Amino acid sequence: MHSLFQRFGVGLGSVILICVATWLLGMVLAPNLMMLDFSLRPNLMPAQIGGPDDRYTLVNFTALFSDPVHRGIFLKTIWASALVMATTFVVTYPMAYWLAKVARRKAVAFVTVALIIPFWINEVLRTLAWYILLAFNGPLNVVLTSLGVIDAPVRWFSDIGVLAGMVYAYILFMLFPVYNSISTLDSAQVEAARNLGASTLQIHRRIVIPHAKAGIATGCVFTFMLAAGSYVAPALLGAPGSRWFTEIIYNWFFEGGNWNRGAAYALVLLALCMAFVMAALRIFRVNLADVAK
Amino acid sequence: MSRSVELIDVEMTFGKARAVEKLSVAIEGGEFFSILGPSGCGKTTILRLIAGFMQPTGGRILIGGRDMVGIGADQRPTSMIFQSLALFPLMPVWENIAFGLEVRGVRKADRRKRAEELLELIALPGYGDRMVHELSGGQKQRVAIARALAVEPQVLLLDEPLSALDLKLRQHMRAELRSLQKRTGVTFIYITHDQSEALAMSDRVAVMSAGVLQQVAPPLELYSNPATPFVARFVGETNEFPGRVERVADGMAAIETAHGLFTGRSGANLKVGDQAIVYVRPEAISLAAGADANGLHAVAEQLEFEGATAMLHAKTDGGYRLSAALPHHRLAEAPTAGTNVRLSFAASQALVLAHA
Ligand SMILES: Nc1ncnc2c1ncn2[C@@H]1O[C@H](COP(=O)(O)OP(=O)(O)OP(=O)(O)O)[C@@H](O)[C@H]1O
Ligand SMILES: [Mg+2]
């Protein structure tokens, strides 16, 4: 703080300080505290608010875990998000390595642009593209049946559809951190390992992946959180019966009219994501500052 | 002794640029072979071709008599020490050394044991559990050597491994490398652009310039009988007196230069009337006038004391600046700046080569 005042003077320094404080307190902390407050109160008629029934309770939280359907959806969201994360990593890693170490400059530029351009379009529209692609009478089924790969059209709107849509939607969030960390690896190390007799698999397991683990952790944290908090892909590409946890939260807020229950569910999701971040950092033995880079 | 590495008409081009011109050389088993040349002359390229990181665009490479075409870097009996060392920073020292054994599926206890033996060899016992960044430059160097030796290569390829070290350590490591090579009997192919390094350590030295092999010879031969003007200039200091060949007889040649008629040993293919250059090392020039010697007049300009010798810089009547190394015991007679000096050199100490 001292150096802040030294650099910008007391006047401008104070302005910066106040802006940052307002941002953190007003935009980040306050809404979350309000959510917490909501989640700890029962859902009451307007007339009852402020009355004797309006006291703090954990009923909104216990409701989630005692309702078998909601609990099931919550657990499924966790492992499905983990699956999205793992799949995205498996799809992305070879591409990241290729871009960072193998491809020529021109190819890197071309592929990067090709990957980024679709992301200029809104996520909803991008998911709609998959919606069209995967439709029962859509192009994918037509191509596959005409090629004879499948006999009859497949209903893609299912967990597979959700997985495909999400992997596509979040691929850049995995690609760039992994690409960045791999590109800082000295190519001579890969050659040295090769020279000492290591196979391609051994080189990646012992040299490249350990080097890139901060980037991999970052990518995994991003994709997991985005997947767990995703709404559009499961809503559009999921089977009609199967739901994502975010859809339940949405329902509590906008259809069930129970903001308190919705707030509680949302907080549980937030806690889950935070726990996941912590666990990922512990597992990859990286610290928060490395990830933020 | 058997042929360890044989390059036959090896060529390498990158796009249109030719990095290595048709190059043939045979390196004996157990030899300390250096490749010497200025920056960008294709030294690293040759090493990488031998290691198998790239395929030559022409010619063949044989290692231990076996043609290496189609054999990848991980399958060749060579081990490379990189200019940057390329140690693995996330592994402790012993895992670095044992990496080659690890990927060959050697059991952990055996790997550890072998790593300890190699640490003994490089005089770093007890350093196995350190991390790479906890080592000094010279220690890293030795770990890189141990890592390369752990896979028991037939040929060790070293790409300017000492260039990052300071002078004292460099001289120390030179001696260590040399003795290590003698103890292990492994063929060393050593790349450097430092001529004193090449001369000090090698059994034979290959001198390269712009992708062309100039000469392959033992250090003494290279220094006293350079085959081309490039080698004469690149290896050691030399004075040059250009002129025209007057006479060639009995391996000696007489050249008419701007400083008078000089006689010297004749290089290959000299004919009367050719343009040629007389090369004379500074230590071959003395202040005294010898009987059969070539003599010239000059004006002393500057005396640089270098410890064992002093370098006298003098300017001839024709304006050419030459240097003469005065031995320690002659320093008392050293001329002061501005005085006229008479210099001479023996014909046996001068070499005449055709103008390139
Ligand atoms: N991958 C490459 N693509 C294109 N040109 C290359 C490549 N590698 C080397 N060259 C060129 O080949 C020539 C020889 O390079 P090389 O690395 O063998 O030089 P060097 O003798 O090792 O030099 P230094 O002493 O500076 O390391 C240079 O002109 C270089 O620009
Ligand atoms: Mg080089």
Automatic annotation (TrEMBL), chain A:
It is found in: Cell membrane. GO terms for biological process: transmembrane transport. PROSITE patterns: ABC_TM1. Pfam families: BPD_transp_1. GO terms for cellular component: plasma membrane. It is a multi-pass membrane protein. Residues 74-280 form the ABC transmembrane type-1 domain. CDD domains: TM_PBP2. Keywords: Cell membrane, Membrane, Transmembrane, Transmembrane helix, Transport. Its main location: membrane. Belongs to the binding-protein-dependent transport system permease family. CysTW subfamily. The chain crosses the membrane at residues 12-34, 78-100, 156-179, 214-237, 262-284. It comes from the Bacteria. The keyword Transmembrane applies. This is ABC transporter permease subunit. InterPro entries: MetI-like, MetI-like_sf.
TrEMBL record, chain B:
Belongs to the ABC transporter superfamily. InterPro entries: AAA+_ATPase, ABC_SmlMolc_Importer, ABC_transporter-like_ATP-bd, ABC_transporter-like_CS, Mo/tungstate-bd_C_term_dom, P-loop_NTPase, Transp-assoc_OB_typ2. One of its GO terms (biological process) is quaternary ammonium group transport. Residues 5-235 form the ABC transporter domain. GO terms for cellular component: ATP-binding cassette (ABC) transporter complex. Keywords: ATP-binding, Nucleotide-binding, Transport. Pfam families: ABC_tran, TOBE_2. It comes from Shinella kummerowiae. This is ATP-binding cassette domain-containing protein. GO terms for molecular function: ATP binding; ATP hydrolysis activity; transmembrane transporter activity.
